[in-house]
């Protein structure tokens, strides 16, 4: 049995949990950490109408070691952006990232499938993130060269959900 429970309801305490998780990764700027928390606030205010849907992992002791945030791309039939997926630095490499992705995919399949899109940078720092998406069955479908800066491309990883 999984050591985590997964929930898609969002509670006030998730604002703090998301900050802690995202900060712990060492990947994101202060501004990006604020944005991650703002998406939780948006959901708390507007619910699913915010366009930001969540899956939180919860340990038996009530800790939240990881989460994913995704939502429909406006003006598409069934394309979804994966905005964030992050596991607390202390809990990585134990299958939680993959389990969170599975939970996102399960929810999308149950509501009719579609295409899930994850963006990342070509920078060497993001090689583990790219490896993670590949291992979850995503393919690198598109790339815009020099998007973030000269020599730093944006990569679009996608997965079709039947
Ligand atoms: C990416 C991330 C969510 C993965 O979570 P995780 O719990 O460590 O990953 P898992 O243990 O579920 O690993 C799943 C697969 O990804 C691969 N993977 C994970 N981290 C990796 C790394 N550092 N290097 C290479 N492969 C890696 C694993 O090999 C594994 O593949 P396998 O099942 O075929 O063995 C996590 O490392 C993280 O929070 N990273 C920083 C934030 C980030 O980059 N988020 C994505 C953009 S928003």
Question: Could you give the topology of this structure?
Answer:
Elements: E1 5-7, H1 13-25, H2 30-46, E2 53-58, E3 66-72, E4 79-87, H3 96-110, E5 114-121, H4 127-135, E6 139-149, E7 152-161
Parallel strand pairs: 4-5
Antiparallel strand pairs: 1-2, 2-3, 3-4, 5-7, 6-7
Helix pairs in contact: 1-2
The structure holds coenzyme A (COA).
Would you kindly provide a written description of the structure presented here, covering whatever features stand out?
The protein has one domain (5-161): Aminopeptidase. Helices cover 33% and strands 33% of the residues. It is built from four helices and seven strands. It has a seven-stranded mixed β-sheet, with helices on both faces. Helix 1 (13-25) packs antiparallel against helix 2. The chain is globular, with a radius of gyration of 15 Å. It starts with a strand and ends with a strand. The mean pLDDT is 96. The structure holds coenzyme A (COA). Residues 25, 27, 84-87, 92-98, 120, 128-129, 131-132, 135 line the site of coenzyme A. Coenzyme A binds at residues 25, 27, 84-87, 92-98, 120, 128-129, 131-132, 135.
């Amino acid at each position: 049995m999984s050591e985590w429970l997964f929930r898609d309801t969002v509670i006030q305490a998730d604002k703090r949990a998301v900050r802690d998780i995202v900060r712990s990764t060492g990947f994101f700027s202060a501004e990006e950490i604020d944005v991650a928390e703002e998406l939780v606030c948006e959901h708390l205010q507007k619910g699913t109408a915010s366009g930001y849907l969540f899956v939180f992992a919860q340990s038996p002791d009530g800790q939240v070691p990881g989460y994913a945030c995704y939502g429909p791309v406006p003006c598409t039939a069934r394309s979804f952006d994966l905005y964030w997926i992050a596991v607390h630095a202390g809990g990585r490499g134990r299958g939680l990232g993959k389990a969170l992705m599975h939970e996102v995919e399960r929810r999308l399949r149950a509501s009719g499938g579609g295409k899930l899109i994850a963006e990342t940078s070509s920078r060497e720092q993001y090689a583990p993130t790219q490896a993670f998406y590949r291992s979850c069955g995503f393919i690198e479908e598109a790339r815009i060269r020099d998007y973030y800066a000269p020599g730093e491309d944006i990569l679009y990883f996608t997965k079709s959900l039947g």
